[in-house]
Amino acid sequence: MQALKFGLLAETAAQLDDLVQLVNQTGHEVALALKASSGCLENVAEVEAWVARLDLQHEKSITLMEELEAFDVPVIYDDIESYSALGQAERVSRFASKIQLCTGTGAQSGEVAKADEVWVLAGSTGGPEAVGLFLKALPEDITGVAFIYVQHINAEISATLQRALLLSTSWAVLSCDRAQPLLEKCIYIVSPSHQVDIHNTGVIAPVAETWVGLYQPSADQVIAKVARNFGKRSGVIVFSGMGDDGAQSCSYMRGSGGVVWAQSPDTCAVDSMPVSAIKTGAVTYQGPPETLARQFVHGRHLSQVPSAKIN
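The chain above was modelled as a monomer; its predicted structure follows.
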């Protein structure tokens, strides 16, 4: 893999020193290192990728992230908390994997594995909070899985959703604006602006067509495509949301050998989507987000008896 020239952005000089060490130890170069401040990204030299360690609770950081994304090069958001219990060698290894995932170099070189399983996370009102809790409760050592996240949103807040997910997981969070392989430990956010195709070769690609029906994006359409191409290696979790999106395809997912779960209605901000899914009889497990995460680790292939229908 050819060395990349990185720009670094962090809150403190100590954080920048740490990022410089990480980038150098992965065989890449540091072109510039900047402390986060208003205007710090004006007239900067061109780089091939950015690494940012920012406090996403501050408005200043949100503005800087928007400026980084406007450069049209990969941006890696590095969360020191996700590395706090790791030794230096493992930190470097995981950071190198994140570089490969975000820049696409791993897909070309074969250094990053394609996902063995593909799961759809579907939500609407209350979905981002529930999905965030689910992701935070997943342990670091899960491998072989990719998530495709279908959340009813406006196009204007897609970037906001991506930033929110980055607070909840150390996985790569990617938009579906280009054809790319479905890699393990990646979350693909489906755009409300255009459809996606999911191929049996393990590739997700944008389609220049708008979504059909009431929901943008459509969980039903994505679930059906995943079930058709991945069968027993697929699943869906229906989280908090308004409406019945996803319910039509739950039975198809189940019939294809996939797993169908739902957030328990009493833990939802709005329970319409999970209730509609449960009524199909295809749901084999339900619980609050944190419990769903524990079940995902220990028993996602074991819960095969459909839960009782809600009348």
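The chain has two domains: 5-109, 117-299.
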